Amino acid sequence: MSDKASGEGIGQPVRRKEDFRFITGNGHYTDDINRTGQTWACFLRSPHAHARIRSIDTSAAEAAPGVVAVFTGKHVADDELGGLICGWTVTSKDGTPMKVGAHPILALDTVRYVGDHVAMVVAETLADARAAAELIDVDYEALSAAVALSTCQNEKTAQVHPEAPRNTCFEWELGNKAETEAAFARADRVVKLDLTNNRLIPNAMEPRAAIGEFDKGSGIYTLHTTSQNPHVARLVLSAFVGVAPEHKLRVIAPDVGGGFGSKIFIYAEETACVWAAAKVGRPIKWTGDRSEAFLSDAHGRDHLSHAELALDSEGKFLGLRVKTIANLGAYLSTFSAAVPTYLYGTLLSGQYDLPAIHVEVDGVYTHTAPVDAYRGAGRPEATYLVERMVETAAREIGMDPAELRRRNYIRTFPHQTPVIMNYDAGDYEASLDAAMKAIDYAGFPARKSEAASRGKLRGIGMSSYIEACGLAPSAAVGSLGAGVGLWESAEVRVNPTGNVEVMTGSHSHGQGHETTFAQLVASRLGIPMEQVEIVHGDTDKVQFGMGTYGSRSGAVGMSAIVKALDKIEAKAKKIAAHLMEAAVEDITFENGTFTVQGTDKSLAWAELSLAAYTAHGFPSGEIEPGLKEGAFYDPTNFTFPAGCHICEVEIDPDTGITKIAKFVAVDDFGTVINPLIVEGQVHGGIAQGVGQALLEHGVYDAESGQLITGSYMDYCMPRADDLPSFTLGFTKTESPSNPLGMKGCGEAGAIASPPAVINAITDALGIRDIEMPATPARVWSALQAAAPRAAAE
Amino acid sequence: MSVVSMTVNGKPASADVEARTLLVQFIRDELGLTGTHVGCDTSQCGACVVHVDGRAVKSCTMLAAQAEGAEVLTIEGLAKNGDLHPMQAAFREHHGLQCGFCTPGMIMTAVDMIRRKPDLDEETVREELDGNICRCTGYHNIVKAILAASQEMR
């Protein structure tokens, strides 16, 4: 391999190809795009959490300057457009399917959360559209709202959907109840904890945006939108909503400024823009502002749980039982039903040999914004619960938390958990050891005393996490209720001059696929990375794809590329054999050169590429001209990234302010293509997890259902001075479930870090629990409650 | 409507705009310089930071009319003669960006930071970044890039 090639090879920290356009201001995000004749949309949103719409008078708005059209739910209904769907069906323990309330594009007679979509004004300018929206007269009959998750599962509370009595969408269970009860019956000790997983608001920095267009001549609709999975958006918009047939709808997700799950989903705004574009005969653009993002992007987390862990006298885990109430918001979003069930209950074994688990989850509607996948999606909730329980158990039995974990780690693979997952590879003790070494665990008591001498409370907390990524084997998810398969596609097009275009169904919105995918292709074909172009995010260019979420693009998306490259190599060898008059079996391909084994005959990649297209003298019927291959890769199993994060905090007892003194993350992601990018993913994930633990909380007023944290003035985003620099380490066991041995790295930080932070805070304060986010007020109050007399002195 | 004129990235720029037009709208919509982004509506996120007469300013917080006659520098004007500014190069070298949306504001803020405080340390950089939000990087590599660029520019 040449120096250049090895410098760009797998495992090298190659600087990103995509950076040049972003650091020079030449990116193309949806809002940067403008179309000829474009109009602007503004959505009138519900000011009520729950209200009946008696009437809507749009006449003044229609007559306002610059207004092109005003649409309400009646227009949508008249067009017989379908509603937005949830692509995953969860079945309750009594065998009944989940109870789904209708989710119209624009509200028809009822609004169900503050921010719900009531009308769309299309006008010549954004200012005109906004001014006209103010003139729409909606006669609301305000109704009481179901807001507090803990109290809304009864007939007396306001009902969100008539289809779902007691606001209960499903009552799901997983695991073995009888075995779990038996485990608790013989337990020497039972540890119990009530846990809240706080509601988060995703806040990708680019707000959602859309431009809908309709070409009268061809009947083709085009939608530019901020999507993590444009093909899934097209499928839903055509097959379920019925905007246009699939072959008459092109969806383009250009540069997308972060997603974290929130841009997986198919929302009302983009749907309305593309649908109405045909009605007004002009392109319609909508760019959400941050306030709209807070109100109507799908939120994340929001669980209330009671958990019990059974142990024997030696500290060996015998069983875990969990009861969780999961907030779904007012409507089911695209994958919302899967998040608190199959992405949550299935991970409750953690890294531990836990012979019996039983989990019950009630999915509950409330008059709040829909709740769906947010970075980690179900797995942070599971990890938080398990790692808080383990830490609490260690303290209650007086054992070092590391030692309790060691006693219970799974050590042989494959390991079948009681909750579906079959872990294929891992070495949990290796990451624990590495993390303890990196943070100098043994030196903690000295650091604690030193902090005490300065009047500060120092604490340490760890989190041994596991996640299921590489979503996912299609047959497995199909059997669990998914309406889609979760394979990925790739197409490798070799041009006559030897450079290569790779069409991938994965979508990059910050992950750096243009670099890592090109590293893989370049190293395999022995050509420089600059000769590889990664193409994604356009349904006209890429035939189909499932998009990017669930840390799947490496393990699944790149595996599809490997499969397509295998086919390219096989065909190229056939051509090489013909050109060099040798048998195919005698052709080797290395460093971009085809050689007839044992001879000095060889062909360079570029020569072969050209020959594939000149096709002179190819034996007819045996070799087709051209060099282009596609592949669909369906994983054989989930992948199981795992590791250990340890956090050390220092708390000022006078102010309750928590400072993260040290944060160590040791992760096992299997094969790493580009360590620079992987480290960046971990940093970002930790920041979001620390945000959840210390700062962020989506809060609704319990009575009115108004979103109290509706701006950056109220919702506390992590800023640079809230965080330290992080210390990272890696261990490696390759995943046997995909050709590259990759596991996925995108969500680990957000999954692992919240329990590490809270374990450290509770350690510092000497208390059993504190609710996230552990704000200075909460920490200070906890200190007062723990030692009221000391505080008074 | 009134004509507003200023110098943007070294070139004269003027447009007939409504009085309420924000500087960021002038830059994006009138001049088509879309590298400057809008990430919030409360002047908190800093995605829209540009330089006005050499000082970092959130361009969503200023009317275009207030920049009448000013020298405005946006991310598009930072590289000179095809050479990246050391701050741009440092962001690439240290992987200080992921989705790229906050990046122009981060870079413009960082350039101004070094102008004001040539001797930067990590704590100062973190404090100074208070007005710029990034959701992707956890700031780790942004801080690293700014410290590296401050060495480079010394």
Question: What do these coordinates show?
Answer:
The complex is a heterodimer of chains A (793) and B (154). Helices cover 29% and strands 23% of the residues of chain A. By secondary structure, chain A is of the alpha+beta class. A seven-stranded mixed sheet of chain A has the order 3-5-1-12-9-10-11, sandwiched between helices. In chain A, a hairpin with a 4-residue loop joins strand 26 (642-652) and strand 27 (657-668). In chain A, helix 15 (513-525) packs parallel to helix 16 and helix 18 (675-695) crosses helix 19. Chain A is globular. Residues 1-5 of chain A have low confidence and may be disordered. Chain B is α+β, with helices and mostly antiparallel strands and 154 residues long. Chain B is 32% helix and 16% strand. Chain B is built from five helices and five strands. Chain B has helices at 23-30, 86-93, 103-116, 122-128, 140-152, and strands at residues 2-8, 11-17, 49-52, 55-58, 71-73. In chain B, strand 3 and strand 4 (55-58) form a beta hairpin. The mean pLDDT of chain B is 97.
